[in-house]
């Protein structure tokens, strides 16, 4: 394990105890010597922001770690740009940059820091800044899959684009039977379905999903025109996790989806 | 003799002028109203309305007689309508085919012994009511054969909601047809007793899962003719009549009624065809006799797609049936209501108009034509009278047809391709060379059947929607 993780984790924990956040920057470098590090420290201490900054270098993995006390993601990002430019000037930059702010982006755990480092090592690109996001970006190997069952083509297209941009994997079906078939094929984490579906109604779909063989339970969100009490009541009775009526806000929908999945 | 023939011929000419001028005036009312209808449908939020608590619940009644081929698709499409609260009641009218079995198998319906049914209207014996909790808003009544009106009455007895919609088992409702009609009802729920929807011909359209997915004009000759004919009748005629509250018919294929008034007028009449016109006449009569404010509305943007007969034999039987039903209704109510001031516009205009220009139409036209032919034969020098008669019919008719097309293009544009518009225009003109004349003869034959006391329902063989759809796909493939 990199020596950065325990060192930074300790600092972060102290910050968290004081209820302040701190920014973390990891940069992949090429052979940064001890002297180089000192020069770098001095260079940045002369300039604002006047934040308490810790510099640390992992010799084995060639990663420079920077921790900014009491700073949010915005300042961290700004600082990362400057660090990147500095390193590039000195021709010490070897890979990309990962930034995060704790606990803004993720919970403070050694695992998260480790994950962040792993992400950085996987990035092949030169000099790009990646904001660490454990929900979507952090788990690119296995994105959350959502099955969208809706007879309205426009809603389907729109939501597919929207949710894909948010990092989800989206599967679309336009009626109940197709929905069930796609469900069995893909076993999604979450199903967003209308109640008013051709061939097989939303209720029947929910019932089938409940009885389907699935090792992890899929959450069901209803997205429908129907605003009758009976429909709301029946949907929750059949195991729906949430009930959203049209016209809907995609931002709200995504927020609710996110809550259900994490 | 020659003079008599000429005078009679001239009378027929004036008759044709009068009838077409009246149609023209009615169409003007349609034009006047269409923009309002267009605006209200553009600015209404049907999507939001279709989930609202405030929309009145509707019971959809589907009388089915020997419909095993189309019934599943139809019920499926009805179960997926955009409407907050409704039920579908299929009434199997003692079918001789497997309509009952097909339905119970498909929806796993089971006979339920304790379904409460109110004996509001007399019907033939009910053999059983089927239901499945998995489809809570689907009911199936199995009863002995008693006709379409009898089936509707049985449906009313079981229905749980204050509005009823009657829908033919061979028709497909557009998903928001019901909500559009409900909107018209909600504009004036106290006074609206009946609302008709627009009927269009589905032949040629592509149908998937009980939904019209690709709107096309029919390929065959007869359905195409009917397509243009329906357009003319519904858009050119009914919008105008509804504007002056003189609508005499709400098509049996798709109409919504207030159940309480339907029950008050004794439900649907059995024994004769034309029960759809009959119920509207009875509603007019009841409301006028009791001096209640009311309206019979027409909602042209609520569309119901129906399968048109594509053979002369079946179309003829349908038209003879219409002729029979029309004559029966006119005799029964005409003698009590025509020109009685008590019945206001309905008695003073709608009914006389219908008797003179619809029911008696064949007689005037045929005899007029014969008289003119006879006259011309006696005196060839005056052949231009015959030409005049023919031209008058054609030109006026085409004018009306084009007016209806214009209405369609202004307001709805269901057929957006230029090719389709040209095709409709062509058939509008073609209609006057043969098709209309045959129609007049069918109506005449219907009257003869009525007088010979033949009141059977006539056969209407259906084709499966599925087959229709597949056929279309293959014809498309062949084309391109």
TrEMBL record, chain A:
Q: Which residues form the Response regulatory domain?
A: 145-261
Q: Which SMART domains match?
A: REC
What PROSITE patterns would the database entry show?
RESPONSE_REGULATORY (PS50110)
* Alphabetized UniProt keyword annotations: Phosphoprotein
Is Transmembrane helix included in the keywords of this UniProt record?
A: no
Question: Does the keyword section mention Phosphoprotein?
Answer: yes
Q: Which residues carry this modification: 4-aspartylphosphate?
A: 194
InterPro entries with a match to the protein in the record: Bact_response_regulator, CheY-like_superfamily, Sig_transdc_resp-reg_receiver
CDD domains, from UniProt?
REC_OmpR
Q: Name one Pfam family in it.
A: Response_reg
Q: One biological-process term from Gene Ontology?
A: phosphorelay signal transduction system
Q: What is this protein called?
A: Response regulator receiver domain-containing protein
Automatic annotation (TrEMBL), chain B:
Which part of the chain is the Glycosyltransferase 2-like domain? 59-194
Taxonomically, which superkingdom? Bacteria
Q: Does the keyword Membrane apply?
A: yes
A GO MF annotation of the entry reads: glycosyltransferase activity
Q: SUPFAM superfamilies in the record, alphabetically?
A: Nucleotide-diphospho-sugar transferases
Report the InterPro entries cross-referenced here. Answer: Glyco_trans_2-like, Nucleotide-diphossugar_trans
Family assignment from sequence similarity: Belongs to the glycosyltransferase 2 family.
**What is the protein name given in its UniProt record?**
Glycosyltransferase family 2 protein
Q: Which organism is it from?
A: Brevibacillus nitrificans
């Amino acid at each position: 394990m990199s020596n950065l993780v325990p060192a930074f984790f300790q600092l972060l924990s102290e910050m968290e105890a004081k209820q302040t956040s701190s920014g973390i920057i990891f940069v992949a470098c090429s052979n940064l010597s001890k002297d180089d590090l000192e020069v770098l420290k001095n260079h940045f201490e002369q300039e604002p922001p006047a934040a308490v900054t810790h510099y640390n270098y992992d010799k084995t993995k060639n990663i420079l770690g920077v921790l900014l006390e009491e700073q949010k993601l915005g300042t961290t990002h700004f600082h990362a740009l400057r660090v990147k430019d500095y390193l590039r000037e000195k021709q010490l930059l070897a890979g990309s940059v990962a930034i995060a702010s704790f606990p803004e982006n993720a919970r403070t755990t050694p695992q998260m820091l480790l994950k962040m480092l792993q992400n950085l090592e996987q990035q092949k690109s030169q000099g790009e800044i990646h904001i660490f996001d454990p929900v979507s970006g952090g788990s690119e190997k296995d994105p959350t899959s959502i099955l969208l069952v809706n007879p309205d083509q426009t809603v389907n297209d729109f939501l597919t684009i929207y949710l894909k941009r948010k990092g989800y994997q989206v599967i679309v079906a336009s009626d109940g039977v197709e929905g069930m078939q796609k469900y069995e094929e893909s076993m999604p984490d979450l199903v967003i379905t209308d109640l008013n579906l051709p061939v097989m109604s939303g209720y029947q779909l929910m019932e089938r999903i409940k009885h389907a063989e699935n090792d992890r339970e899929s959450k069901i969100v209803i997205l429908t025109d129907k605003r009758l009490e009976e429909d709301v009541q029946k949907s929750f009775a059949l195991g729906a996790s949430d009930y959203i009526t049209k016209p809907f806000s995609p931002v709200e929908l995504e927020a609710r989806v996110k809550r259900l999945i994490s | 003799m020659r003079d008599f023939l000429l005078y009679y011929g001239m009378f027929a000419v004036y008759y044709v002028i009068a009838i077409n001028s009246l149609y023209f005036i009615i169409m003007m009312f349609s034009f006047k109203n269409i923009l309002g209808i267009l605006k209200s449908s553009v600015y209404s939020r049907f999507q939001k309305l279709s989930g609202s608590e405030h929309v009145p619940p509707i019971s959809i009644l589907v009388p089915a007689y020997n419909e095993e081929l189309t019934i599943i698709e139809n019920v499926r499409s009805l179960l997926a309508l955009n409407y907050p609260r409704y039920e579908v009641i299929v009434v199997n009218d003692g079918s001789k085919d497997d309509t009952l079995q097909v339905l119970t198998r498909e929806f796993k319906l089971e006979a339920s012994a304790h379904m409460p049914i109110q004996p509001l209207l007399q019907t033939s014996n009910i053999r059983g009511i089927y239901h499945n909790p998995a489809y809570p808003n689907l009911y199936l009544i199995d009863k002995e054969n008693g006709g379409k009106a009898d089936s509707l009455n049985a449906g009313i007895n079981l229905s749980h909601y204050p509005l009823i919609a009657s829908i033919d088992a061979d028709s497909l409702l557009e998903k928001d047809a019901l909500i559009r009609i409900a909107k018209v009802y909600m504009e004036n729920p106290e006074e609206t007793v009946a609302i008709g929807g627009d009927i269009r011909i589905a032949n040629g359209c592509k149908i998937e899962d009980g939904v019209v997915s690709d709107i096309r004009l029919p390929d065959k000759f007869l359905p195409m003719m009917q397509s243009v004919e329906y357009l003319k009748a519904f858009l050119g005629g009914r919008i105008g009549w509804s504007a002056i509250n003189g609508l005499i018919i709400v098509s049996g294929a798709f109409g919504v009624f207030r159940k309480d008034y339907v029950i008050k007028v004794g439900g649907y009449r059995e024994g004769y065809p034309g029960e759809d016109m009959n119920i509207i006449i009875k509603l007019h009569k009841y409301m006028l006799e009791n001096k209640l404010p009311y309206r019979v509305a027409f909602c042209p943007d609520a569309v119901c797609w129906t399968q048109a007969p594509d053979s002369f034999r079946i179309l003829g039987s349908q038209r003879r049936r219409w002729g029979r039903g029309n004559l029966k209704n006119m005799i029964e109510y005409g003698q009590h209501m025509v020109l009685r001031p008590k019945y206001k516009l309905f008695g003073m205009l709608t009914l006389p108009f219908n008797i003179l220009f619809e029911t008696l139409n064949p007689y005037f036209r045929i005899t007029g034509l014969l008289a003119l032919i006879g006259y011309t034969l006696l005196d060839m020098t005056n052949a231009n009278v015959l030409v005049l008669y023919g031209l008058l019919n054609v030109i006026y008719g085409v004018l009306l047809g084009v007016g209806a097309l214009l209405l369609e293009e202004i307001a709805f544009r269901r057929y957006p391709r230029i090719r389709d518009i040209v095709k409709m225009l062509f058939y509008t003109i073609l209609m006057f060379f043969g098709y209309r004349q045959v129609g007049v003869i069918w109506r005449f034959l219907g009257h003869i059947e009525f007088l010979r006391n033949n009141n059977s329902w006539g056969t209407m063989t259906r084709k499966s929607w599925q087959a229709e759809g597949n056929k279309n796909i293959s014809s498309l493939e062949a084309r391109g």
